[in-house]
Amino acid sequence: xxxxxxxxxxxxxxxxxxxxAVKTKSRITSASxxxxxxxxxxxxxxxxxxxxxxxxQKIAEFxxxxxxxxxxxxxxxxxxxxxxxxxxxxxxxxxxxxxYLESFWLAPKLRGKGQGSELLNRAEQIAxxxxxxxxVLDTLDFQARPFYEKHxxxxxxxxxxxxxxxxxxxxxxxxx
Length: 176
Prior knowledge:
CATH class of the largest domain: Alpha Beta
CATH architecture of the largest domain: 3-Layer(aba) Sandwich
Oligomer: single chain
Largest sheet: 6 strands, mixed
CATH superfamily of the largest domain: Gcn5-related N-acetyltransferase (GNAT)
Order of helices and strands: EEHEEEHEHEE
Structural class: alpha+beta
Strand content: 35-45%
Distance between the termini: 51 Å
Strand order of the largest sheet: 3-4-5-6-8-7
Number of domains: 2
Number of strands: 8
């Protein structure tokens, strides 16, 4: 029995109870809940990308009750070769005081030649023009931490052993 009675004004013995059974590949787990939570429900595993998008949409709907999400704007820059081949891509979004730099990729043949710095500087300027005062990003241990540090980004937190033992994910920010 889950200890949820502390969250209700009535003693647990006064609340009707229903049971929930969850089947996973290895076992069936069951629990009882006070009926005030939900009269009837069932739990299923949903490991599809479409479900993850639905969950994000539900969070966005909730967030919309607290702020105007229409102020969130995508920010994207690309470098293309003359034949149309993508050579560099930077993507993120601005919202309020923050620019979230979500993805930044540069073709290996362009690395170390200034194009990455040019893309990053241009994205930061667009973010400033939109009223952003800060940038946040994450990068993996084998990606671009030294590049971002060269551009004034500060390490805020390290997620150790990501995604596996020995790896790391760095969360970085910069004041614009």
